[in-house]
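Per your request, structure below.
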């Protein structure tokens, strides 16, 4: 019950936002903006604190996975193969 009220209050707070702030440089912008006008970074939807959510950086996660697999293969090739 209390959890439902908390969710409703959060949704009301999000709906009452008129502008949002960049997660990186704190610049105020319109709710429709997808890129910060100041630092040009991607911004997502607004949260209950009036801050734009940082979009998930899928490419960076992919790069981290590829680099980890490459490191494991290198360690195998250099120390375990023979
Ligand atoms: Zn910014």
């Amino acid at each position: 019950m209390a959890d439902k009220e908390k969710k409703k209050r959060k949704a009301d707070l999000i709906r009452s936002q008129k502008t949002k702030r960049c997660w990186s440089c704190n610049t105020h912008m319109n709710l429709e903006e997808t890129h910060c006008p100041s630092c040009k970074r991607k911004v997502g939807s607004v949260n209950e604190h009036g801050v734009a959510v940082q979009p998930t950086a899928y490419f960076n996660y992919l790069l981290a996975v590829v680099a980890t697999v490459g490191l494991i293969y290198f360690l195998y090739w250099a120390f375990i193969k023979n």
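The mean pLDDT is 92.

Regards,
D.
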